[in-house]
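Sample pair:
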Amino acid sequence: MIDVNRKGEVWVFAEQHNGHLEDTPLELMSKARRLADSLGVKLAAVLLGDTVKGLATKLVQYGADKVYVVEQPLLRAYQTNSYAKVMVELIHKHKPQIVLYGATTTGRDLAPRIASAAKAGLTADCTDLQIGDHQTVKDGKLHKNLLFQVRPAFGGNIVATIINYDRWPQMATVREGVMPMPQPDVKRKGEIIELKTQLSQQDLPLEILAEQKRPKKVDLKGARIIVAGGAGVGSKENFKLIWDLANCLGAAPAGSRAAVDLGFIDKDHQVGQTGTTVRPSLYIAVGISGAIQHQAGMSQSQKIVAINKDPEAPIFQIAHYKILGDLNEVVPKMITAIKEKDVENK
């Protein structure tokens, strides 16, 4: 167990691959900056890899006061053992009070290993983080300035707030896209601290012969308009309506988990708790009931239009514009109206 350090820094694990910073740690900077300011401590990023020091400046521009850089040829490619060993060494030495990771494939692999080695708590897939006080029932002791780790629980049917008052650092993985990307400040100054680590080939039990990555078919996080269909669309053939409406609007087509599970659309297009979190200017939900699992991934959209024939559909509770009707009648009429408007504008 790491000694509780009430003045410890807030850390963000700066995930990078092949010398390229992922978006998730940059997104985390916006929330981590507010957490650090609330606690009155420094915000630090931890950057591991080989010849990655050049990325440190970008992390400073996105809000870091410090960047701990560990460069080592054996850290060139991500492996759980080597990265976890270095992170645990740094945690024992510098004693941060909060460590945040993106809930990416790497973050979900690395964070539990670190939590186990450090005997610290870890909350996975958080959608929000706050600072607050908590009084324990057993002894009535008031614990101030704890990290409130908010995440969907019990299959997404409730939203739980999890705290960790006696085993630090407080650690969490945070879902991609739930924090807005901050604007970089190119004039911002920070401290770049280069550290050494002792790694040997024995710390890398695997030999990586080749690495292949398949790019996603769609960039939902960057889409300004999204048209998403749910199980209510009825069939893969009928899902053509979603694609047609999206094409008319220059939007990205998407789907709920139910639509993906039914084979209506590919998983790369999934929005929701187990898919991509989005915040477009316009989100059109067609035949989506709007369970909390789906709302977790799109409720921050600037404008939400819901089309559903069920007046009790939960999606109507968060929609700005509600269309009660059969999507097979409503969507074709929308497509026709959009096309006619385009002709008039020409």
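Residues 95 and 188 are 25 Å apart (CA to CA).
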